[in-house]
């Protein structure tokens, strides 16, 4: 079995009372485990459909949490990344 994480909307996290338990991504969505998804629906595909979520590998979950990569949920636009140009100015 391959370890997977699931990125889901706050709606289901709030309904399950897990907002203080699960990791919140910078875009406001949450990282859930298979056990959390089973509380939404026992079939993972149906749970993802209901929660408007996506499956992530451990590396994708880490990169999304750290802001290295962005994995938007279905129907969500990717957030713009801040401009990474140097803030150094010539005197």
Describe the structure.
By secondary structure, the chain is of the alpha+beta class. It is built from four helices and four strands; from the N terminus they run βαββααβα. It has helices at 10-15, 34-40, 44-51, 58-66, and strands at 5-8, 23-24, 30-32, 54-56. It has a four-stranded antiparallel beta sheet with strand order 2-3-1-4. A hairpin with a 5-residue loop joins strand 2 and strand 3. Helix 2 crosses helix 3. The chain is globular, with a radius of gyration of 16 Å. The model is unreliable at 81-91 (pLDDT under 50).
Features:
91 residues, alpha+beta, 4 helices, 33% helix, disordered C terminus
Elements, N to C (H/E): EHEEHHEH
Averaging pLDDT over every residue, what do you get? 84
Number-wise, the strands total 4
First-residue to last-residue Cα separation: 58 Å
**Oligomeric state as shown:** single chain
Low-confidence stretches: 81-91
Pairing-aware structural class of the strands and helices?
alpha+beta
Shape: globular
Percent strand equals 5-15%
Strand order of the largest sheet: 2-3-1-4
Output the radius of gyration.
16 Å
- Fraction of residues in H or I helices: 25-40%
Helical segment tally?
4
Q: Mind describing the biggest β-sheet?
A: 4 strands, antiparallel
Give a short overview.
By secondary structure, the protein is α+β, with helices and mostly antiparallel strands. The chain contains four helices and four strands.
Question: Which SSEs are present, and which pair or pack?
Answer:
Blueprint: E1 5-8, H1 10-15, E2 23-24, E3 30-32, H2 34-40, H3 44-51, E4 54-56, H4 58-66
Antiparallel strand pairs: 1-3, 1-4, 2-3
Helix pairs in contact: 2-3
